[in-house]
Amino acid sequence: MSYIVLARKWRPQGFEDLIGQETVVTTFKNALSSGKIAHAYLLSGPRGVGKTSSARILAKALNCQQRKDSEPCGQCESCKAITAGSSVDVFEIDGASNNSVDAVRELRETVKYAPSGGKYKIYIIDEVHMLSTSAFNALLKTLEEPPPHVIFIFATTEPKKVPATILSRCQHHSFRRVNKGVIKEQLRKITAAEKISIQEAALEMVAKAADGSMRDALTLLDQAYSFSDKITEKELQVLLGLPEAEIISNLSGTILSGNITGTLSIIKELTERGSDLRQIIKELVEHFRNLAVVKVTQGDKELLEFSDDEMQRLRGLSSSISIEELTVLLSELLRLEYEIKSAVNPRYSLELGLLRTSFVKGMTSIEQVMKMLGDEQAEGYVRESSPKTSVVPGATKDNENNLHPSKFEISDNTPEKKTEPVTQPDAGNKFIIDNKEELWQKLLEHLDAEDHLLSCKLAEAQLINLTTTDLTIGFNGGMFVLADSIKKNTTVIESILKKLSGHKIKLKTTSLSRKETKKDVSKIKKEVFAEPLVQDAMRIFSGSLINVKPLTEENE
Question: pTM of the entire structure?
Protein backbone atom coordinates (compact mmCIF):
# COMPACT_ATOMS: atom_id res chain seq x y z
CA MET A 1 0.00 0.00 0.00
CA SER A 2 1.29 3.49 -0.89
CA TYR A 3 2.42 5.85 1.87
CA ILE A 4 -0.26 8.15 3.31
CA VAL A 5 0.98 11.52 4.54
CA LEU A 6 0.36 12.34 8.18
CA ALA A 7 -2.05 15.19 7.38
CA ARG A 8 -4.38 12.72 5.62
CA LYS A 9 -3.77 9.77 7.91
CA TRP A 10 -4.58 11.77 11.04
CA ARG A 11 -7.46 13.76 9.59
CA PRO A 12 -10.32 14.00 12.14
CA GLN A 13 -13.00 11.36 11.57
CA GLY A 14 -15.32 12.38 14.41
CA PHE A 15 -16.15 15.40 16.51
CA GLU A 16 -13.93 14.05 19.30
CA ASP A 17 -10.91 14.20 16.98
CA LEU A 18 -11.52 17.84 16.06
CA ILE A 19 -9.14 19.82 18.33
CA GLY A 20 -9.09 23.52 19.10
CA GLN A 21 -12.67 24.21 17.92
CA GLU A 22 -14.69 23.43 21.04
CA THR A 23 -17.39 26.05 20.39
CA VAL A 24 -18.19 24.79 16.89
CA VAL A 25 -18.13 21.14 18.04
CA THR A 26 -20.56 21.86 20.89
CA THR A 27 -22.95 23.72 18.56
CA PHE A 28 -23.00 20.87 16.02
CA LYS A 29 -23.48 18.21 18.70
CA ASN A 30 -26.39 20.05 20.30
CA ALA A 31 -28.02 20.68 16.91
CA LEU A 32 -27.75 16.99 16.00
CA SER A 33 -29.06 15.82 19.39
CA SER A 34 -32.05 18.19 19.29
CA GLY A 35 -32.74 17.80 15.57
CA LYS A 36 -32.29 21.54 14.91
CA ILE A 37 -30.54 21.16 11.56
CA ALA A 38 -30.08 24.26 9.39
CA HIS A 39 -30.41 24.01 5.61
CA ALA A 40 -27.16 25.95 4.99
CA TYR A 41 -23.90 26.34 6.93
CA LEU A 42 -20.93 28.62 6.28
CA LEU A 43 -17.64 27.56 7.90
CA SER A 44 -14.92 30.24 7.82
CA GLY A 45 -11.44 30.52 9.28
CA PRO A 46 -7.69 30.20 8.55
CA ARG A 47 -6.28 27.32 6.53
CA GLY A 48 -5.73 23.94 8.12
CA VAL A 49 -7.93 24.39 11.20
CA GLY A 50 -10.62 21.78 10.35
CA LYS A 51 -13.30 23.45 8.18
CA THR A 52 -13.55 20.76 5.49
CA SER A 53 -13.05 17.99 8.05
CA SER A 54 -15.94 19.40 10.10
CA ALA A 55 -18.12 19.50 6.98
CA ARG A 56 -17.41 15.81 6.32
CA ILE A 57 -18.01 14.83 9.94
CA LEU A 58 -21.31 16.74 9.94
CA ALA A 59 -22.30 15.01 6.69
CA LYS A 60 -21.47 11.60 8.18
CA ALA A 61 -23.46 12.38 11.34
CA LEU A 62 -26.49 13.49 9.30
CA ASN A 63 -26.57 10.33 7.14
CA CYS A 64 -25.17 7.86 9.71
CA GLN A 65 -27.34 4.74 9.96
CA GLN A 66 -26.22 3.84 13.50
CA ARG A 67 -25.60 7.25 15.05
CA LYS A 68 -25.61 7.48 18.83
CA ASP A 69 -26.55 10.94 20.08
CA SER A 70 -24.43 13.22 17.87
CA GLU A 71 -21.28 11.21 17.04
CA PRO A 72 -21.17 9.27 13.73
CA CYS A 73 -20.40 5.56 14.14
CA GLY A 74 -17.81 5.47 11.35
CA GLN A 75 -18.63 1.80 10.65
CA CYS A 76 -21.88 1.88 8.64
CA GLU A 77 -21.91 1.89 4.82
CA SER A 78 -22.80 5.57 4.67
CA CYS A 79 -19.92 6.64 6.98
CA LYS A 80 -17.41 4.47 5.08
CA ALA A 81 -18.54 5.85 1.73
CA ILE A 82 -18.26 9.47 2.90
CA THR A 83 -14.80 8.79 4.37
CA ALA A 84 -13.68 7.22 1.10
CA GLY A 85 -15.25 10.03 -0.92
CA SER A 86 -17.51 7.68 -2.87
CA SER A 87 -20.90 8.55 -1.37
CA VAL A 88 -23.62 9.27 -3.95
CA ASP A 89 -25.46 11.54 -1.51
CA VAL A 90 -22.53 13.77 -0.50
CA PHE A 91 -21.00 16.00 -3.19
CA GLU A 92 -17.70 17.83 -2.58
CA ILE A 93 -17.29 20.69 -5.04
CA ASP A 94 -14.22 22.89 -5.47
CA GLY A 95 -15.45 26.47 -5.73
CA ALA A 96 -12.26 27.60 -7.47
CA SER A 97 -12.66 25.27 -10.48
CA ASN A 98 -16.48 25.19 -10.57
CA ASN A 99 -17.14 28.89 -10.23
CA SER A 100 -19.19 29.54 -13.35
CA VAL A 101 -22.92 30.13 -13.53
CA ASP A 102 -23.29 26.99 -15.69
CA ALA A 103 -21.87 24.81 -12.89
CA VAL A 104 -24.39 26.27 -10.43
CA ARG A 105 -27.25 25.75 -12.87
CA GLU A 106 -26.26 22.10 -13.19
CA LEU A 107 -26.21 21.85 -9.39
CA ARG A 108 -29.73 23.31 -9.24
CA GLU A 109 -30.96 20.62 -11.60
CA THR A 110 -29.65 17.80 -9.37
CA VAL A 111 -30.98 19.31 -6.13
CA LYS A 112 -34.59 18.33 -6.79
CA TYR A 113 -33.80 14.59 -6.85
CA ALA A 114 -34.14 12.67 -3.57
CA PRO A 115 -31.09 11.04 -1.91
CA SER A 116 -30.29 7.46 -2.91
CA GLY A 117 -29.58 5.87 0.44
CA GLY A 118 -29.13 8.43 3.18
CA LYS A 119 -31.56 10.87 4.75
CA TYR A 120 -30.01 14.01 3.22
CA LYS A 121 -28.35 15.04 -0.01
CA ILE A 122 -25.41 17.21 1.12
CA TYR A 123 -23.41 19.66 -1.01
CA ILE A 124 -19.99 20.71 0.40
CA ILE A 125 -18.55 23.65 -1.57
CA ASP A 126 -14.95 24.43 -0.59
CA GLU A 127 -13.47 27.92 -1.16
CA VAL A 128 -16.96 29.22 -1.89
CA HIS A 129 -15.72 32.81 -2.12
CA MET A 130 -14.21 31.91 -5.53
CA LEU A 131 -17.65 31.63 -7.14
CA SER A 132 -18.48 34.38 -9.62
CA THR A 133 -21.15 36.99 -8.94
CA SER A 134 -23.42 35.37 -11.51
CA ALA A 135 -22.95 31.98 -9.87
CA PHE A 136 -23.86 33.41 -6.46
CA ASN A 137 -26.96 35.04 -7.90
CA ALA A 138 -28.01 31.78 -9.53
CA LEU A 139 -27.65 30.01 -6.16
CA LEU A 140 -29.69 32.51 -4.13
CA LYS A 141 -33.21 31.17 -4.68
CA THR A 142 -32.22 27.54 -4.18
CA LEU A 143 -30.25 28.42 -1.07
CA GLU A 144 -33.15 30.32 0.47
CA GLU A 145 -35.79 27.64 -0.13
CA PRO A 146 -34.04 24.33 -0.75
CA PRO A 147 -35.91 21.00 -0.80
CA PRO A 148 -36.21 19.47 2.70
CA HIS A 149 -33.72 16.73 1.86
CA VAL A 150 -30.89 19.12 0.79
CA ILE A 151 -28.22 20.70 3.02
CA PHE A 152 -25.49 23.08 1.85
CA ILE A 153 -22.15 23.36 3.70
CA PHE A 154 -19.82 26.12 2.48
CA ALA A 155 -16.19 26.51 3.55
CA THR A 156 -14.01 29.58 2.99
CA THR A 157 -10.87 31.31 4.24
CA GLU A 158 -12.21 34.73 3.18
CA PRO A 159 -15.79 35.24 4.38
CA LYS A 160 -15.64 38.96 3.53
CA LYS A 161 -15.69 38.05 -0.16
CA VAL A 162 -18.94 36.14 0.21
CA PRO A 163 -21.92 38.38 -0.71
CA ALA A 164 -24.12 39.52 2.15
CA THR A 165 -27.13 37.96 0.43
CA ILE A 166 -25.48 34.53 0.77
CA LEU A 167 -24.28 35.16 4.34
CA SER A 168 -27.78 36.08 5.48
CA ARG A 169 -29.11 32.71 4.27
CA CYS A 170 -26.48 30.63 6.11
CA GLN A 171 -25.68 29.70 9.69
CA HIS A 172 -22.15 31.10 10.08
CA HIS A 173 -19.51 29.36 12.21
CA SER A 174 -16.05 30.93 12.66
CA PHE A 175 -13.06 28.65 13.19
CA ARG A 176 -10.07 29.92 15.19
CA ARG A 177 -6.35 29.30 14.97
CA VAL A 178 -5.35 26.34 17.08
CA ASN A 179 -3.41 27.19 20.22
CA LYS A 180 0.30 26.34 20.06
CA GLY A 181 0.09 24.25 23.22
CA VAL A 182 -2.81 22.22 21.78
CA ILE A 183 -0.87 21.61 18.55
CA LYS A 184 2.16 20.52 20.54
CA GLU A 185 0.13 18.00 22.55
CA GLN A 186 -1.46 16.56 19.40
CA LEU A 187 1.97 16.27 17.75
CA ARG A 188 3.31 14.47 20.81
CA LYS A 189 0.43 12.02 20.58
CA ILE A 190 1.00 11.43 16.87
CA THR A 191 4.80 11.01 17.15
CA ALA A 192 4.27 8.47 19.92
CA ALA A 193 1.78 6.51 17.80
CA GLU A 194 3.99 6.68 14.68
CA LYS A 195 7.14 5.95 16.73
CA ILE A 196 8.87 9.10 15.50
CA SER A 197 11.94 10.15 17.50
CA ILE A 198 11.89 13.93 18.00
CA GLN A 199 13.40 16.25 20.58
CA GLU A 200 11.11 18.36 22.77
CA ALA A 201 12.70 21.58 21.47
CA ALA A 202 12.11 20.43 17.87
CA LEU A 203 8.48 19.66 18.70
CA GLU A 204 8.13 23.18 20.08
CA MET A 205 9.61 24.62 16.88
CA VAL A 206 7.16 22.69 14.65
CA ALA A 207 4.19 23.84 16.74
CA LYS A 208 5.40 27.44 16.58
CA ALA A 209 6.14 27.35 12.83
CA ALA A 210 2.64 25.97 12.13
CA ASP A 211 1.19 29.36 13.16
CA GLY A 212 -2.13 27.93 14.39
CA SER A 213 -2.66 25.44 11.53
CA MET A 214 -2.84 21.77 12.55
CA ARG A 215 -2.49 20.66 8.94
CA ASP A 216 0.67 22.75 8.48
CA ALA A 217 2.10 21.25 11.66
CA LEU A 218 1.57 17.70 10.34
CA THR A 219 3.06 18.64 6.96
CA LEU A 220 6.19 20.07 8.66
CA LEU A 221 6.47 16.97 10.86
CA ASP A 222 6.19 14.75 7.78
CA GLN A 223 8.91 16.74 6.05
CA ALA A 224 11.21 16.53 9.08
CA TYR A 225 10.58 12.78 9.43
CA SER A 226 11.58 12.30 5.80
CA PHE A 227 14.79 14.22 6.45
CA SER A 228 15.87 12.26 9.52
CA ASP A 229 14.69 9.35 11.67
CA LYS A 230 15.79 11.28 14.77
CA ILE A 231 14.60 14.86 14.51
CA THR A 232 16.76 17.33 16.46
CA GLU A 233 16.51 21.06 16.93
CA LYS A 234 19.61 21.77 14.80
CA GLU A 235 18.39 19.61 11.91
CA LEU A 236 14.98 21.26 11.97
CA GLN A 237 16.54 24.72 11.88
CA VAL A 238 18.55 23.77 8.80
CA LEU A 239 15.59 22.09 7.12
CA LEU A 240 13.07 24.88 7.70
CA GLY A 241 15.52 27.77 7.43
CA LEU A 242 14.65 28.94 10.93
CA PRO A 243 17.15 31.11 12.86
CA GLU A 244 18.58 29.77 16.09
CA ALA A 245 17.12 31.22 19.27
CA GLU A 246 20.62 32.28 20.31
CA ILE A 247 21.08 34.28 17.10
CA ILE A 248 17.79 36.13 17.59
CA SER A 249 18.77 36.83 21.20
CA ASN A 250 22.20 38.17 20.17
CA LEU A 251 20.72 40.25 17.36
CA SER A 252 18.11 41.77 19.65
CA GLY A 253 20.86 42.52 22.18
CA THR A 254 22.91 44.49 19.63
CA ILE A 255 19.78 46.38 18.55
CA LEU A 256 18.83 47.27 22.12
CA SER A 257 22.37 48.48 22.88
CA GLY A 258 22.65 50.43 19.61
CA ASN A 259 25.71 48.36 18.57
CA ILE A 260 25.39 48.64 14.79
CA THR A 261 28.79 46.97 14.21
CA GLY A 262 27.65 43.85 16.06
CA THR A 263 24.32 43.89 14.19
CA LEU A 264 26.02 44.04 10.77
CA SER A 265 28.40 41.22 11.76
CA ILE A 266 25.47 38.93 12.66
CA ILE A 267 23.69 39.73 9.37
CA LYS A 268 26.91 38.94 7.46
CA GLU A 269 27.18 35.59 9.24
CA LEU A 270 23.53 34.74 8.51
CA THR A 271 23.92 35.66 4.84
CA GLU A 272 27.01 33.47 4.47
CA ARG A 273 25.13 30.56 6.06
CA GLY A 274 22.29 30.98 3.55
CA SER A 275 19.64 31.82 6.15
CA ASP A 276 16.33 33.26 5.01
CA LEU A 277 16.53 36.94 5.98
CA ARG A 278 12.76 37.33 5.61
CA GLN A 279 12.34 34.70 8.32
CA ILE A 280 14.91 36.55 10.46
CA ILE A 281 12.95 39.81 10.43
CA LYS A 282 9.72 37.88 11.12
CA GLU A 283 11.33 36.32 14.21
CA LEU A 284 12.64 39.73 15.32
CA VAL A 285 9.18 41.31 15.07
CA GLU A 286 7.71 38.51 17.19
CA HIS A 287 10.56 38.80 19.72
CA PHE A 288 10.15 42.55 20.23
CA ARG A 289 6.37 42.16 20.35
CA ASN A 290 6.86 39.70 23.22
CA LEU A 291 9.17 42.20 24.97
CA ALA A 292 6.54 44.94 24.62
CA VAL A 293 3.80 42.67 26.02
CA VAL A 294 6.02 41.70 28.98
CA LYS A 295 6.84 45.37 29.61
CA VAL A 296 3.20 46.47 29.58
CA THR A 297 1.57 43.50 31.37
CA GLN A 298 4.43 42.59 33.73
CA GLY A 299 4.53 39.11 32.16
CA ASP A 300 0.90 37.97 31.93
CA LYS A 301 1.09 34.24 31.11
CA GLU A 302 -2.34 34.29 29.48
CA LEU A 303 -0.98 36.52 26.70
CA LEU A 304 2.38 34.76 26.28
CA GLU A 305 2.90 31.00 26.00
CA PHE A 306 6.36 30.74 27.58
CA SER A 307 8.01 28.76 30.34
CA ASP A 308 9.09 30.44 33.60
CA ASP A 309 12.73 30.57 32.46
CA GLU A 310 11.79 32.22 29.16
CA MET A 311 9.55 34.73 30.95
CA GLN A 312 12.39 35.60 33.32
CA ARG A 313 14.74 36.17 30.37
CA LEU A 314 12.21 38.41 28.61
CA ARG A 315 11.69 40.44 31.81
CA GLY A 316 15.44 40.98 32.07
CA LEU A 317 15.67 42.22 28.47
CA SER A 318 12.62 44.49 28.77
CA SER A 319 13.96 46.14 31.94
CA SER A 320 16.79 47.76 29.97
CA ILE A 321 14.49 49.70 27.61
CA SER A 322 11.48 51.98 28.00
CA ILE A 323 8.07 51.24 26.52
CA GLU A 324 8.43 54.35 24.32
CA GLU A 325 11.65 53.01 22.80
CA LEU A 326 10.09 49.56 22.36
CA THR A 327 7.13 51.08 20.54
CA VAL A 328 9.39 52.94 18.11
CA LEU A 329 11.53 49.84 17.56
CA LEU A 330 8.55 47.58 16.91
CA SER A 331 7.01 50.09 14.49
CA GLU A 332 10.30 50.30 12.59
CA LEU A 333 10.67 46.49 12.45
CA LEU A 334 7.10 46.05 11.17
CA ARG A 335 7.83 48.58 8.44
CA LEU A 336 11.07 46.75 7.65
CA GLU A 337 9.27 43.38 7.43
CA TYR A 338 6.94 44.84 4.80
CA GLU A 339 9.86 46.34 2.83
CA ILE A 340 11.89 43.11 2.77
CA LYS A 341 9.00 41.06 1.33
CA SER A 342 9.37 42.85 -2.02
CA ALA A 343 13.05 43.84 -1.78
CA VAL A 344 15.38 42.97 -4.66
CA ASN A 345 18.30 42.67 -2.23
CA PRO A 346 16.94 41.66 1.20
CA ARG A 347 20.36 41.93 2.88
CA TYR A 348 20.83 45.60 2.07
CA SER A 349 17.26 46.42 3.05
CA LEU A 350 17.71 44.57 6.36
CA GLU A 351 21.02 46.34 7.08
CA LEU A 352 19.54 49.77 6.33
CA GLY A 353 16.47 49.08 8.43
CA LEU A 354 18.45 47.85 11.44
CA LEU A 355 20.76 50.85 11.05
CA ARG A 356 17.68 53.03 11.56
CA THR A 357 16.73 51.09 14.68
CA SER A 358 20.19 51.70 16.18
CA PHE A 359 19.36 55.42 16.44
CA VAL A 360 16.47 54.74 18.83
CA LYS A 361 18.78 54.02 21.77
CA GLY A 362 20.47 57.40 21.39
CA MET A 363 17.24 59.38 21.29
CA THR A 364 16.34 61.64 24.18
CA SER A 365 12.74 62.36 25.09
CA ILE A 366 11.47 65.92 25.47
CA GLU A 367 10.94 65.33 29.20
CA GLN A 368 14.59 64.31 29.62
CA VAL A 369 15.78 67.39 27.70
CA MET A 370 13.64 69.62 29.93
CA LYS A 371 15.14 67.99 33.00
CA MET A 372 18.65 68.45 31.61
CA LEU A 373 17.91 72.12 31.03
CA GLY A 374 16.65 72.63 34.59
CA ASP A 375 19.13 74.45 36.84
CA GLU A 376 19.40 71.93 39.63
CA GLN A 377 19.01 68.83 37.42
CA ALA A 378 21.81 69.96 35.12
CA GLU A 379 24.14 70.65 38.03
CA GLY A 380 23.32 67.28 39.63
CA TYR A 381 21.78 68.64 42.81
CA VAL A 382 19.25 66.53 44.67
CA ARG A 383 16.66 68.11 46.90
CA GLU A 384 16.41 66.47 50.28
CA SER A 385 13.72 67.03 52.88
CA SER A 386 13.16 65.58 56.32
CA PRO A 387 10.07 63.38 56.74
CA LYS A 388 8.90 65.60 59.59
CA THR A 389 10.21 69.06 58.71
CA SER A 390 10.37 70.72 55.31
CA VAL A 391 12.90 73.53 55.05
CA VAL A 392 12.61 76.13 52.30
CA PRO A 393 15.43 76.30 49.74
CA GLY A 394 16.69 79.55 51.23
CA ALA A 395 17.95 77.79 54.37
CA THR A 396 21.70 77.70 55.01
CA LYS A 397 23.46 74.40 55.57
CA ASP A 398 26.58 73.92 57.69
CA ASN A 399 26.88 70.21 56.96
CA GLU A 400 24.82 67.28 55.71
CA ASN A 401 23.02 66.80 59.04
CA ASN A 402 22.49 70.34 60.42
CA LEU A 403 20.17 72.76 58.67
CA HIS A 404 19.70 76.35 59.84
CA PRO A 405 16.68 78.12 58.33
CA SER A 406 17.31 81.73 57.47
CA LYS A 407 13.92 83.30 58.27
CA PHE A 408 11.12 80.93 57.30
CA GLU A 409 10.52 77.34 58.35
CA ILE A 410 7.53 75.07 57.73
CA SER A 411 6.87 72.25 60.18
CA ASP A 412 4.25 69.54 59.77
CA ASN A 413 4.03 68.64 63.46
CA THR A 414 4.59 71.89 65.34
CA PRO A 415 2.99 75.33 65.05
CA GLU A 416 4.56 77.56 62.43
CA LYS A 417 7.41 79.66 63.76
CA LYS A 418 7.92 82.79 61.72
CA THR A 419 10.12 85.81 62.14
CA GLU A 420 8.03 88.69 60.87
CA PRO A 421 9.84 90.64 58.18
CA VAL A 422 10.72 94.23 58.88
CA THR A 423 7.97 96.43 57.51
CA GLN A 424 7.30 100.10 57.18
CA PRO A 425 4.00 102.04 56.99
CA ASP A 426 2.49 102.78 53.60
CA ALA A 427 -0.18 105.27 52.57
CA GLY A 428 -2.92 102.68 52.05
CA ASN A 429 -2.50 101.14 55.51
CA LYS A 430 -0.50 98.33 53.84
CA PHE A 431 3.00 97.31 54.77
CA ILE A 432 5.76 96.93 52.20
CA ILE A 433 8.01 93.95 52.93
CA ASP A 434 11.64 95.07 53.09
CA ASN A 435 13.16 91.77 52.01
CA LYS A 436 10.81 91.38 49.04
CA GLU A 437 13.60 90.32 46.62
CA GLU A 438 14.62 87.54 49.00
CA LEU A 439 11.02 86.40 49.46
CA TRP A 440 10.52 86.52 45.66
CA GLN A 441 13.51 84.22 45.12
CA LYS A 442 12.28 81.83 47.83
CA LEU A 443 8.88 81.74 46.13
CA LEU A 444 10.48 80.76 42.82
CA GLU A 445 12.65 78.09 44.43
CA HIS A 446 9.80 76.60 46.46
CA LEU A 447 7.51 76.61 43.42
CA ASP A 448 10.26 74.93 41.36
CA ALA A 449 10.17 71.97 43.73
CA GLU A 450 6.45 71.50 43.04
CA ASP A 451 6.08 72.60 39.40
CA HIS A 452 9.27 73.32 37.48
CA LEU A 453 7.48 74.57 34.34
CA LEU A 454 5.28 77.00 36.29
CA SER A 455 8.34 78.29 38.14
CA CYS A 456 10.07 79.01 34.82
CA LYS A 457 7.04 80.97 33.61
CA LEU A 458 6.83 82.99 36.84
CA ALA A 459 10.56 83.76 36.66
CA GLU A 460 9.92 85.65 33.38
CA ALA A 461 7.86 88.22 35.32
CA GLN A 462 9.28 91.35 36.93
CA LEU A 463 8.57 92.02 40.61
CA ILE A 464 6.85 95.39 40.86
CA ASN A 465 5.72 95.49 44.48
CA LEU A 466 5.27 93.13 47.43
CA THR A 467 3.23 94.03 50.51
CA THR A 468 1.57 92.07 53.28
CA THR A 469 -1.63 91.96 51.20
CA ASP A 470 -0.58 92.07 47.51
CA LEU A 471 2.12 90.74 45.18
CA THR A 472 2.20 92.71 41.94
CA ILE A 473 4.17 91.32 39.00
CA GLY A 474 4.48 92.54 35.43
CA PHE A 475 5.21 91.04 32.01
CA ASN A 476 6.60 92.90 29.06
CA GLY A 477 4.78 92.83 25.72
CA GLY A 478 6.56 89.72 24.42
CA MET A 479 6.05 87.61 27.55
CA PHE A 480 2.51 88.65 28.52
CA VAL A 481 1.23 85.41 26.95
CA LEU A 482 2.47 83.69 30.13
CA ALA A 483 0.09 85.72 32.30
CA ASP A 484 -2.89 83.41 31.58
CA SER A 485 -0.96 80.35 32.78
CA ILE A 486 0.08 82.20 35.95
CA LYS A 487 -3.51 83.27 36.64
CA LYS A 488 -4.76 79.66 36.35
CA ASN A 489 -2.31 78.65 39.09
CA THR A 490 -2.91 81.64 41.38
CA THR A 491 -4.11 79.41 44.23
CA VAL A 492 -0.86 77.40 44.24
CA ILE A 493 1.32 80.52 44.25
CA GLU A 494 -0.70 82.29 46.97
CA SER A 495 -0.59 79.15 49.14
CA ILE A 496 3.24 79.10 48.99
CA LEU A 497 3.36 82.83 49.72
CA LYS A 498 1.27 82.32 52.86
CA LYS A 499 3.56 79.55 54.09
CA LEU A 500 6.68 81.64 53.45
CA SER A 501 5.48 84.99 54.81
CA GLY A 502 2.63 84.20 57.20
CA HIS A 503 0.40 86.70 55.36
CA LYS A 504 -2.51 86.12 53.02
CA ILE A 505 -1.08 87.76 49.91
CA LYS A 506 -3.05 88.14 46.68
CA LEU A 507 -1.32 87.83 43.31
CA LYS A 508 -1.83 90.57 40.72
CA THR A 509 -0.47 90.67 37.16
CA THR A 510 -0.06 93.66 34.85
CA SER A 511 1.51 94.51 31.51
CA LEU A 512 4.62 96.68 31.63
CA SER A 513 5.03 99.73 29.44
CA ARG A 514 7.91 99.97 26.99
CA LYS A 515 9.66 102.46 29.25
CA GLU A 516 9.55 100.09 32.23
CA THR A 517 10.94 97.13 30.28
CA LYS A 518 13.67 98.79 28.30
CA LYS A 519 17.16 98.13 29.67
CA ASP A 520 20.69 98.75 28.64
CA VAL A 521 21.65 96.17 25.99
CA SER A 522 25.09 95.54 27.48
CA LYS A 523 23.51 94.85 30.86
CA ILE A 524 21.02 92.42 29.27
CA LYS A 525 23.89 90.55 27.56
CA LYS A 526 25.69 90.10 30.86
CA GLU A 527 22.52 88.83 32.52
CA VAL A 528 21.85 86.38 29.68
CA PHE A 529 25.43 85.03 29.68
CA ALA A 530 25.25 84.58 33.46
CA GLU A 531 21.93 82.70 33.29
CA PRO A 532 22.52 79.01 34.22
CA LEU A 533 19.72 77.87 31.89
CA VAL A 534 21.45 79.47 28.91
CA GLN A 535 24.82 78.04 29.92
CA ASP A 536 23.33 74.55 30.23
CA ALA A 537 21.63 74.85 26.84
CA MET A 538 24.91 75.87 25.16
CA ARG A 539 26.74 73.00 26.88
CA ILE A 540 24.18 70.30 26.01
CA PHE A 541 23.72 71.36 22.37
CA SER A 542 27.38 72.51 21.88
CA GLY A 543 26.09 75.94 20.91
CA SER A 544 27.29 79.51 21.25
CA LEU A 545 25.50 82.80 21.98
CA ILE A 546 25.83 85.15 19.01
CA ASN A 547 23.53 88.05 19.80
CA VAL A 548 21.07 89.22 22.47
CA LYS A 549 18.15 91.42 21.54
CA PRO A 550 15.50 92.75 23.94
CA LEU A 551 11.96 91.67 23.05
CA THR A 552 10.77 95.28 23.03
CA GLU A 553 13.14 96.13 20.15
CA GLU A 554 11.37 93.67 17.85
CA ASN A 555 8.21 95.79 17.93
CA GLU A 556 9.94 99.14 17.40
Answer: 0.57
